[in-house]
Design goal:
By secondary structure, the chain is of the alpha/beta class. 32% of the residues lie in helices and 16% in strands. Strands 1, 2, 5, 6, 7, 10, 11, 18, 19 and 20 form a ten-stranded mixed sheet that branches. A four-stranded antiparallel sheet has the order 13-14-16-15, with helices on both faces. Helix 15 crosses helix 16. The protein is globular and about 70 Å long.
Amino acid sequence: MPPVKLAPLALLSALVAVPSAAQLTPAPASTADAAPAAAPKLLVVVSVDQFSGDMFAAYRQHFTGGFARLLDGAVFPNGYQSHAATETCPGHSTITTGLRPARTGIIANDWVDLKAAREDKTIYCAEDPRAPGSSSSKYTVSDMNLLVPTLGERMKAANPATRAVSVAGKDRAAVMTGGHSIDELWWWDSDRNAYVSYAGKAEPAAVTRANTAVARLIAAGQPALDAPEWCRTRERAIPIGDAGRTVGTYRFERKPGEAGRTWRASPAFDGATLALAAAMVQDMKLGQGPATDILTVGASATDFVGHTYGPGGVETCLQLASLDRDLGDFFAALDRQGIDYAVALTADHGGLDLPERARQNGVPDAQRVDASLNARTIGTALSARLGLKGQLLWGGSFGDIWVDPTLNPAQRKQVIAEGMKAFAAHPQVHSVFTAEAIAATPLPTGPADTWSLLERARASYNPLRSGAFVVALRPHVTPIVDPTRGYVATHGSFWDYDRRVPILFWRKGLAGFEQPAAVETVDIAPTLAALIGLPIKPGDMDGRCVDIVAGPDSSCR
């Protein structure tokens, strides 16, 4: 079957009615030369999972849709998820809280609690480990691990008339940006092939329409997508492993009924989430009430595409081209509602391309992690050498490493010292830091692009959850041993290809500008708070208000 172009946002017409002129609520008049004086009626915060600063730079000149609109606003190309634990959950926890993982408590997607009252000692960031039968892989979704309030919660505390809504392709994205006190919170559940919420939550009509429409899309399948010319230059088969598998040429064809990973790692997935978000705005009349409302949207498909095919091929190019179109349709749907809204868009982390392609593209030291470099293997060797029983070390090949809490103080000290020595001796390891050294480091200040590795680790360190020591791999080491069994590329490192993300602000009537100086994702919440006149006490957020108004006026009033 010949490739076909992907139709305009397939679900939008099914979920959102186009209002007549008489039904429209006119937005406050504004011009590009005069910023609106009143607070916007709706804040829209979009996180594009794994949308790195490098990816933004590579594709920005090709955008013509939603990204292009945002490029007319306040553009900060050198935003930072400034901490070391560059994963989905920690990154999302910074965006609407204004706080780094050290204070949000979300130090990773998963961490180890060896004192947990269950056999599975791994804790998923968005689960309630107290729930009967919950485990880190089959969990009960909860906001309990997020230790701080979100911007939406602060808005509702200041004015109970505020409505807060969060929709995302991942539960952890919805939870970490939505927070604890929220009117509607919905995420995609791959086991049920549907958008779901907490147990007992009534399903609004918008979600019912979305699930019905998505079921039809999945049942119908999809032919291969047509790639724009600027994506075809990236279409090259990259061999993966010895099983004959390649990536770099897939155009998202789906067989009828094919869901699961194939659906999630496709442009249609973000299209569905954005259509649901637009439907929630319409049905709830967000932005049309007495108070400013907030909508957070987690566009998760770029991450699934990046993990499955790598961020450097035609797959990610097609994904971003489609997302640009879908964001444009989403914003147009808001425009038709006559809402005065402001947008902030960023990412939870960046990403690293698969080493097999990176070596072809001028990165000769790109490599996969050694199978022997992991906490269990090193701990087992220590156990035999030191004459100690049990699993001494817990964790992976990098990041936090936990130590058996049943050891006496002398044994613990010895195991930590020997464990760190073993990790540090490996040629793929750059640095190893003790928890004590990290904790003794002052919380970092100043531009995030100047921070030391120890300061980056400090921004992720929480004494209640972090490990006994932290391992930083060398640059361009991909912590996936075998790419034939699942994902081929990932993120999570200390390095700027995982830390640097774009931060874009837009509102009708605000004159655009671009500022290359480093800012942080923790700056988004205080910036939006200032835009709506919500006071934030000194010290309540790690971030600062960033002025998004060109000229002598300031949005940081």
